[in-house]
């Protein structure tokens, strides 16, 4: 019968002995993919707030049918799991209103020209009435309130407190007549670049892989670039996606892409044809790129990754133009030999690396691996701050934690075996500070296959 032994104990009698111990819990942080952020304009929905969504239908329900909600749908189709949405505000926005007699004054919950209609009707009997909130001919909400003479208006106002679309002034008395009427006078805010910037910074506390916006305006895209540069300095590593005006000349698009010259910016240079045979707007191409980058794990590449709901590429480019696009940091759609529409390359806009950058930053896949490594390592190290002593034992804990992550990412086929996490010999630790050096080689995807055919004209028998 097996018996327990203590560590270091040598038993006398032949038998089976056992002990158990804690191997040590794995506190390493896993990769988080599929998270997108979107700053957009809309005719409905909360302004100046970040909302998280996991379904395209919920985005449309919250903000109505607009360019931004179509972009969100495309992102989900390309694999996004969560999208943080910010509706940009501005000046001049008004809420629609409805006045019915002297005792019914309703106001839309949000600014915008969203089509809302309200209908009130009697129910069988004399004790209750119904109120319907109707959007584009579809009943979205149904309420029942007491038909109690002078108390009807107050009853309806109380009932509508739970509405997602309208509010009603309280303190009114009197009956509520039957009616069916649209709210009018609503207008969308006039959104400027400042409104987008406010959205970028409102999203900063959230973790996401990729951020984009619903415009091809060069000024806004430049503001997005500035924001990305700023947050990278404070330890966030999002990739920003911008897109070209597809009516611009091809050389202009190349110049714009190369002008970003940033490993954290991806630039979509053309569009695709949707199943209805129409060329999709450039922002939809950007949305598909944003969704694909976020959803694709860093041990895989978006190169030759087919997109959804595309049947063709409206512009026909030569092989030389596709090569020029890559060298300019611009991604294009192309058509595979079996008719799929896919990303022809997976480059960032970095075309002229500085002295601290290598060519790996020119690839989205490799940039995403490096972003992931830095983020995961930052989270792990942050947990150790103030929790371990700045002595040999504490340093050992840090080294073990760092090497644990490197080994994890090697097993995940994101970096090569042999990565190291060591004390920086050139910077000795002080009483409360220690310096470390991380050396890792990320793994690129196989993107070029060269076939050498050797044929022979053998004589027949």
Q: What is the strand arrangement across the widest sheet?
A: 4-5-3-13-14-15
Total strands: the figure is 19
Measured between the Cα atoms of the first and last residue, the distance is 77 Å
Strand content: 15-25%
Shape: globular
Give the integer mean of the pLDDT values.
93
Family: Belongs to the myoviridae tail sheath protein family.
Organism: Emergencia timonensis
InterPro entries: Phage_sheath_subtilisin
Pfam families: Phage_sheath_1
Describe the model.
The structure is a single chain. This protein has 461 residues and is α/β, with parallel strands linked by helices. Among the domains are: 207 residues, Rossmann fold; 86 residues, Immunoglobulin-like, CATH 2.60.40.4290. It is built from 10 helices and 19 strands. A 6-stranded mixed sheet has the order 4-5-3-13-14-15, sandwiched between helices. The protein has a 4-stranded antiparallel sheet with strand order 10-9-8-12. Helix 1 runs antiparallel to helix 2, helix 2 packs parallel to helix 7 and helix 4 packs parallel to helix 5. The longest helix is centred in the last third of the chain and has 21 residues. The model has no long low-confidence stretch (mean pLDDT 93).
